[in-house]
Amino acid sequence: MRGLAFSVRASSVLASTLALLGACGTPAEKRDPPVAFAKLSPDRVKHGERLAIVLGCSGCHGKDLAGQDWSEDGYGRLWTANLTVAAAGYSDAQLESVIRSGKKPDGTPLWDMPSNLFTQLADADMAALIAYIRSRPAKGAAHPPPTFGPILKAEMAKGTYYSSAVKVEREGKAWPPDAGPQHRLARYMVRATCAECHEMNLRGGKSGPVKAERPDIRIAASYESGDFARLLRTGVPAGERKLGLMGEVARGRYSHFTDAEIAAIHAYLKAVAERDP
């Protein structure tokens, strides 16, 4: 009996020790659970289609993802990639790397691809996005690589225009301001969307070759919730002012946010304005 009691006590001590070690955990086990965009459909392709709209993929590459001509006098010959053709040449892992790194598998850099926004995209969201890209039927041919006109060459010489790969190196690990754990999801969504124009610090300014002034997004803290929702759904701000780029982005992309996502983003921006005015 004494041996049995010892055995029971020893087992108890071992279990307690293992439990303690388990509580310490590995870095991966200690991380907060992942956040991601709301999945409105169990169909991964459908989820990816909404993401392609909200993240701007359809806006840049066209609704059919076959690419668009963004060439302009002084800027050069600039096409977005025909994803219906380009994706077929990559494995899923390679395509994910291209999206996140801003460069092709052979090291060729991309230009004007906002890969720095996608470095922290949740695995589930990335998988859905890739599934949607692969679901699009092949259309047309691959587009030519960019050629840069005098305006962009001047920007390059000044160091204000650089490749997507360089921007990933500089900003791929950056995040918008932290407003507490209750705002993790909104911070994640804002990083993948609003930061494209308003910068990672959300202060706005003038970014890249397009010199339009982008406001400090903390201005959203002054909006009532209904007015903020209206802005993101219709592109019409309080006061009925006419907006340019933001109006287009809201109508084309942000109108596809869910009501809960819009409310979360508004609450986050209000919290940021209070913590980091």
Number-wise, the strands total: 2
**The CATH topology of the largest domain:** Cytochrome Bc1 Complex, Chain D, domain 2
**What is the class of the largest domain in the CATH system?**
Mainly Alpha
Helix content: 40-55%
Q: What form results from the Cα inertia axes?
A: globular
Q: Uncertain segments of ≥5 residues (pLDDT<50)? A: 1-30
Characteristics of this structure?
mainly alpha, Cytochrome Bc1 Complex, Chain D, domain 2, 2 domains, two-stranded antiparallel ribbon, 2 strands, disordered N terminus
Report on the structure:
The protein starts with a helix and ends with a helix. It is 49% helix and 1% strand. A two-stranded antiparallel ribbon has the order 1-2. The chain has 14 helices and two strands. The protein is an all-alpha fold and 277 residues long. Helix 3 crosses helix 7. It has two domains: 124 residues, Cytochrome Bc1 Complex, Chain D, domain 2 (Orthogonal Bundle); 103 residues, Orthogonal Bundle (Cytochrome Bc1 Complex, Chain D, domain 2).
What's this model, at a glance?
By secondary structure, the protein is mainly α. The protein folds into 2 domains: 38-161, Cytochrome Bc1 Complex, Chain D, domain 2; 175-277, Orthogonal Bundle (Cytochrome Bc1 Complex, Chain D, domain 2), CATH 1.10.760. The chain has helices at residues 2-24, 27-30, 44-54, 57-61, 83-86, 92-101, 123-135, 150-158, 164-171, 184-192, 195-198, 225-234, 245-252, 259-275; strands at residues 76-77, 147-148.
